[in-house]
């Protein structure tokens, strides 16, 4: 069976709520497929530590274009391809490409700094653009008609299929899962000025919560796996501390300090604002509508791995619950390893609950 016995398939996480009194997460789950959906369509899981592994490129972003729902042909997002529809002999419109028809070479040459968008390494893009069957159009879309696409200059194209190559809801990260932390504070409120986290892994007001591939951990270079491996070792240490305390009859909550989180994010934003990612001519999924770069890391992978190689317990506020039969004191808990200082990453043991890709593993 391996890991599969711990995985809940055909499920999606709808909401997660931190209980301040119990110092545990309650995760509401919806069954989306299979026979279980008929008999047990939804249920809840309680866990000591909650981990989000939903990533940044998981929820398609659909454009807000008038008439999109009125199109009588087939509409599909490039990330949710419907293979049951053949393209043979069809007029296909793709929304989300770049370039212009006149002066093709000049128009396809970016006027922004290299690297401000993801660099696509492909040997078939330009041949596809140069194909006589392709019409490259960058005039703004006015609306979708029942039979095609109408531009602001009045030109109308008839289509059988429209493909939305409009990317993902990257800057929202946890969307559409509703997360509520300590004091009833929602993640939406916490991130009202843009997503941020301590080292891209933990979030103020969310005790015993961690993220893989969270805010400011994407790369314009190197492999994301190296970032996630560092996060895994770091979060394992936090999980171990929570479970070790539980085994001693305690319920603890580990929450990153707001001042440490703010200082860290101010530092990386100052670096990022001087990078190609911040080019004002460049619109990308790396930054939100206000221009804040919420997705990308500001340094090298080696720097990030070194930063997460050990936990500084001074980064966290610790709340301690009651033991069975007596009240625990904050000084009874000194962090994993018992010295109250830094600790290198260790194995987590039996993790109670983790959420990935809107599925659930217990």
From TrEMBL:
Which InterPro entries does the record associate with it?
FAD-bind_Monooxygenase_sf, FAD/NAD-bd_sf
Indicate, by first and last residue, each region the UniProt record lists as having compositional bias (Basic and acidic residues): 320-330
Q: Where is the composition biased (Gly residues)?
A: 335-350
* Chain spans, region Disordered: 318-350
Top-level division of the source organism's lineage: Eukaryota
PANTHER family, per this entry? Answer: FAD_NAD(P)-BINDING DOMAIN-CONTAINING PROTEIN-RELATED, L-ORNITHINE N(5)-MONOOXYGENASE-RELATED
The entry's family comment says: Belongs to the FAD-binding monooxygenase family.
Protein name per UniProt? FAD/NAD(P)-binding domain-containing protein
Species per Swiss-Prot/TrEMBL record: Phaeosphaeria nodorum (strain SN15 / ATCC MYA-4574 / FGSC 10173) (Glume blotch fungus)
The top of its lineage is: Eukaryota, Fungi, Dikarya, Ascomycota, Pezizomycotina
């Amino acid at each position: 069976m391996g890991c599969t016995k711990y995985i809940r398939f055909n499920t999606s996480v709808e909401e997660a709520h931190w209980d301040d009194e119990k110092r545990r997460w309650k995760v509401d789950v919806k069954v989306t497929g299979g026979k279980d959906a008929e008999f047990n369509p939804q249920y809840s899981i309680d866990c000591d530590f909650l981990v989000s592994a939903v990533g940044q490129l998981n929820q398609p972003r659909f454009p807000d274009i008038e008439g999109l729902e009125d199109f009588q042909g087939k509409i599909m997002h490039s990330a949710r391809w419907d293979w049951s529809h053949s393209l043979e002999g069809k007029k296909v419109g793709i929304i989300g490409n770049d370039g212009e028809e006149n002066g093709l070479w000049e128009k396809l040459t970016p006027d922004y700094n290299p690297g401000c968008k993801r660099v696509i390494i492909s040997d078939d893009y330009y041949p596809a653009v140069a194909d006589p069957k392709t019409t490259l159009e960058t005039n703004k879309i006015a609306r979708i008609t029942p039979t095609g696409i109408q531009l602001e200059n009045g030109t109308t194209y008839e289509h059988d299929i429209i493909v939305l190559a409009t990317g993902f809801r990257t800057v929202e990260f946890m969307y559409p899962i509703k997360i509520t932390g300590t004091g009833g504070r929602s993640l939406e409120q916490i991130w009202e000025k843009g997503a941020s986290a301590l080292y891209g892994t933990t979030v103020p007001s969310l005790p015993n919560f961690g993220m893989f591939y969270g805010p400011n951990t994407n790369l314009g270079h190197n492999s994301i796996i190296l970032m996630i491996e560092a996060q895994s070792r770091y979060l394992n240490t936090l999980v171990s501390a929570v479970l070790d305390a539980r085994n001693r009859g305690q319920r603890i909550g580990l929450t990153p300090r707001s001042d440490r989180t703010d200082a860290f994010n101010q530092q990386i934003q100052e670096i990022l604002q001087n990078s190609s990612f911040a080019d004002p001519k460049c619109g990308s999924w790396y930054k939100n509508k206000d221009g804040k770069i919420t997705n990308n890391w500001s340094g090298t992978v080696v720097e990030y791995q070194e930063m997460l190689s050990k936990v500084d317990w001074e980064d966290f506020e610790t709340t301690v619950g009651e033991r069975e039969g007596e009240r625990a004191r904050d000084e009874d808990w000194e962090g994993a390893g018992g010295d109250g200082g830094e600790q290198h990453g260790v194995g987590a043991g039996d993790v109670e609950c983790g959420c990935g890709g809107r599925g659930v593993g217990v």
